[in-house]
């Protein structure tokens, strides 16, 4: 409901331009060259994760700057449906 309301308020152009102007969307190759500490959180594969667990694990293994965490039970909107776990991971990462 929140996303639908937000889309209705922003008009058609904003989401359309986001999709058209932000390409390419496949940034896996670039992700491997990250040089700053990066926390990559992935939703539970049973909940429709956009980050394949195998790929996240591989990125973290190949690049010491990347920490990968699979958040079991969380969906792509983990900041909403798994807020406490999400924030705990963020706080731990930032404190480290």
Protein model, in words:
The chain is α+β, with helices and mostly antiparallel strands and 96 residues long. The protein contains 6 helices and 2 strands; from the N terminus they run αααβαβαα. It has helices at residues 2-10, 13-21, 28-31, 53-62, 78-81, 83-95; strands at residues 38-43, 66-71. The chain has a two-stranded parallel sheet. The longest helix has 13 residues, at 83-95.
Topology:
Blueprint: H1 2-10, H2 13-21, H3 28-31, E1 38-43, H4 53-62, E2 66-71, H5 78-81, H6 83-95
Parallel strand pairs: 1-2
Helix count, per DSSP?
6
The percentage of residues in β strands lies in 5-15%
Q: Terminal Cα separation, in Å? A: 36 Å
Q: Measured on Cα atoms, how large is the radius of gyration?
A: 15 Å
Main sheet specs: 2 strands, parallel
Q: Briefly note the structural class of the backbone.
A: alpha+beta
Provide a compact summary of the structure.
The chain is an alpha+beta fold and 96 residues long. It contains six helices and two strands, in the order H-H-H-E-H-E-H-H.
